[in-house]
Each structure stands twice: as C-alpha cells, then as structure tokens.
Amino acid sequence: MFLPEPIQRLIDALSRLPGVGPKTASRLAFYLLRSPDELSSELSEALATIKTDIAYCQRCYNITTAGRELCEICSDSRRDQNLICIVEEPLDVIALERTGAFEGVYHVLDGALSPIEGIGPEDLKIQELMARVEGGEVGEIIIATNPSMEGDATAMFLQGQLKGLVARVTRLARGLPMGGDLEYADQNTIQRALAGRQEMK
Amino acid sequence: MFLPEPIQRLIDALSRLPGVGPKTASRLAFYLLRSPDELSSELSEALATIKTDIAYCQRCYNITTAGRELCEICSDSRRDQNLICIVEEPLDVIALERTGAFEGVYHVLDGALSPIEGIGPEDLKIQELMARVEGGEVGEIIIATNPSMEGDATAMFLQGQLKGLVARVTRLARGLPMGGDLEYADQNTIQRALAGRQEMK
Questions:
Q1: Are residues A19 and A101 in the same domain?
Q2: Chain A residue with minimal CA distance to B41?
Q3: With an 8 Å Cβ cutoff, are B51 and A39 in contact?
Q4: Do residues B105 and B73 touch, judged by C-beta distance below 8 A?
Q5: Which residue from A37, A54, A97 is facing B7, i.e. has the nearest CB?
Q6: Distance between CA A141 and CA A82 in Å, rounded?
Q7: How far apart (Å, rounded) are the C-alpha atoms in residues A75 and A59?
Q8: pLDDT in tens, A106-137
Q9: Torsion angle of alpha carbons A87, A88, A89, A90, nearest 10°?
Q10: Whose CA is closest to A139, among A65, A84, A76, A86?
Q11: Which residues of B touch A65 (CB under 8 A)?
Q12: pLDDT band at B1 (very low <50, low <70, confident <90, very high)
C-alpha cells in the first residue's frame, strides 16, 4: 500500500487485537495521530510495562502488581478466606467484584477443560486448588465457570475432585438473565430455569 | 477498583479510544496481557513513534513519512498532477486509493466547513489549494468531500472559489448515501461515484 510505514505499522499492530478489523484499525490509528501526544504516549507506556509490571498471585492466580506474592483480595483480612469462588479468567473476577455481593476469595483456573482444544486438568490451576483445599479449612466452594460446554465439563470434574474434601460445593444458579425476555431465551436456558424453579415465599 | 495499577492504567488509556467502552477496554487489556510479548511491544513502539515519524506533505497535506517534503503520491511522476481530488481527511485518500480507480493527485482539506463547530475556510487548507491552482495548470478538480451537510457546504464554497480558475470542477456522483462517511463506503460504490462524477454548473 502507499501508506507511510509508521502508520501502516500501527494499523497492522492494531489489526491483531480481537474484534478490530483493518478499517477500525485505520480509524484508531488516524484518531491517535490527530489526538494530543499525551494519549499515544500514555498508551505506549502502559503497553510497554504491562508484561513486566503484572504478576500472578501465588495463592489464587489472579493478576496482581509485580513484586507482591499475594493479590489484594487474598491479603485482605476482611475477606472470608474459607469461601472460595472458582472462575476461569481474571475478567470473571472483575465481573463478580463489580457486584459487591461476594465476600470470599477466588481461585482462577486460567481456562476451562476442552478436549477439542487439548486442554486437560494439568493445563489448569487444579493441582494448586487441591493443595489449597487440603491445606486449609475451606467451608464452601462456589464453582463459577462459564455456562458453556467447557464450563460445565470443568464444573463436573471439579465436583468429583472436591467431593469429601469440602463441606459444600455449589454452582452459580442457572436461569433467565435479569432484564431478559422469556420469548427470546433459548431452549436450554428455559429448561434450566424450569428445573431450577424456586419456591416463592 | 481492586485492579492492579498497571492494568488499570492500560484499561483507562484504551477506554479513551473512539468506540472502545470500559468492557471492551478490559477485554483488550487482558488479551494483550495473555498474548506473546511481541504484540504489546510492537504496539507500544508503533505508538511511541507515530507522532514524530509522520509528517504532512507540503503540497497536498496528506500524511507522509517525516523528512519527506512531498508524499509518495505527489512525487509519483506516473500520477496526473493536473487532476486534483479534494478530500476532507487522509482516511478518504486511503478509501479512494483502495479502488485503484483514480490516477490523479489529492488535496486534503483537513476537515469540512462547519458553522456549528466554528470551522471556517481559514481553518481548512483552502488557501493552500488556491495557491496550488493558481500556480499550476490544473485541468480538473474533483470534489470528494463527504455526502453530508458539511461536505456539501464545503463543495459549494470550493466551487465558488474555483470558478474561472479551473476548466472543470466535478463532484463525486450521488450513489454515496446521504449522512454516510466516505471512508466506510465499499469499493464498488466509490468506483461508481468516481465514474459518474458530474459537471458543477
């Protein structure tokens, strides 16, 4: 193409981000070119340091600032260390924390079981979870893997592993999402909502 | 929030890009964190140099590599230097070049007339265009401003300015939907619009 190399290079790099096609990449690149120096330099610096400044909590495997052994949640004495919520990704921790409705701690698996993609139990932080459970006095484990094939398989597997070791193993409720429309819900969701119906008190 | 500062900083910077909300920014940040070092470093370096490595062509005001006086198109002897296509933005040049249907050169106005936003003729590269027209032997000027209120107003204004100075002043044919954006139009639409350009009377 006839584009100057510096901007082509930026467009190429932006195009590699998920959900960013060549046209969006061009728009972003030209937006950055026209906006104050400070935006591109701030973004550049944040990107330059992200890999070195972020580490993983040695207990729950959520992200934390490099240099810390435990993340903020694991080292927070107000959190219930005996209530563990298992999630697939750090982004899931953010989603749960945003609700303010959970007072326990997390365990980030770093994915879900997927025979198709060749992801087995040894690829996830399951051994680390078992060590954590065996070493402590965990009262309840909430399995919050995604409501997908892989998430379900992972939940079933974990339930088998944890049986007898933890008093209570629960899973996030399935049902109709808030604000959703019954007529637009898929069959599986409605089936689950029916099966999991609850007494009105 | 409880997020480690390095990733929060990256999310904040990404959120300032157009069309990127806080959730998309989080997704992108975590994607960058998980992908090979090379992607974030490549993006970081491209961003760091974009402002200093890009300059503007002193003839058409399109972007070019810093250190060059004229852009690749203006310095290309195979291009018809007497056929000038006037566009609002460098992105519009890309859209037109992608069609391969134009053999002339460009003039980038750097915007369009907009009384509401307080953008008058003196804010655009119109003086520079007039100097270019008066100094050369321009055979035809194609006005390719966006098919919008501002683009129309700009085209009308330019027509008035250019009358008597240039043999032919044309405008891209309608076929471009009103309110649309030139850079988003597909190649065929742009090609048709180029081929069907009409005399301004």
A1: no
A2: A48
A3: no
A4: yes
A5: A54
A6: 8
A7: 10
A8: 999 999 999 999 999 999 999 999 999 998 78
A9: 20
A10: A84
A11: 4-6
A12: low
Domain-located, residue A29:
yes
- Asked whether residue A120 falls in the same domain as residue A187, the answer is yes
Question: Any bridge partners for residue B84, and if so which?
Answer: B105, B141
Task: Answer whether B17 sits within 8 Å of A33, measured CB to CB.
Answer: no
ipTM of predicted assembly, 2 dp: 0.79
Look at residue A60 and tell me if it is in a domain. no
- In A69-124, which ranges are continuous DSSP H helix? 90-99
Q: How far is CA A141 from CA A110, A135, A170, B119, in A?
A: 17, 14, 6, 61
Q: What pLDDT band is residue B187 in, cutting at 50, 70 and 90?
A: confident
Any domain includes B111:
yes
- Both A31 and A124 in one domain: the answer is no
- Cα–Cα distance, B122 to B97 (Å, whole number): 27
pTM: 0.76
Whether B187 and B156 have beta carbons less than 8 Å apart is answered as no
Q: Please tell me whether residues B93 and B185 are part of one structural domain.
A: yes
Across the interface, of A17, A40, A63, the residue whose CB is closest to B31 is A17
Range of the domain at B13: 5-52
**CATH number for the domain including A10?**
1.10.8.420
State the number of CA atoms in the 13 A half-sphere of B14 facing the CB.
Answer: 28
Please give the Cα distance from A97 to A62 (Å, whole number). 13
Structurally, how many domains does chain A consist of?
A: 2
Q: Is pLDDT at B178 greater than 70 in this prediction? A: no
Residues A86 and A47 in one domain: no
Answer whether A4 sits within 8 Å of B41, measured CB to CB. no
Average pLDDT over residues B115-140: 93
Assess if residue A111 is contained within a domain: yes
Same domain, B29 and B86: no
Same domain? A92 vs A153: yes
Q: What angle do CA A59, A60, A66 make, to 5 degrees?
A: 75
Helices and strands: H and E segment counts in chain A: 7, 6
Q: Which residues contact B47 (CB under 8 A, 6 or more apart)?
A: A10, A32, A40, A41, A43, A44, A47
DSSP string, B153-181: HHHHHHHHHHTTTSSEEEEPPBTBPTT--
- Residue A33 sits in the same domain as residue A100: no
- The whole-angstrom distance between A113's CA and the closest CA on chain B is 18
Calpha distance A132→A127 (Å, rounded): 9
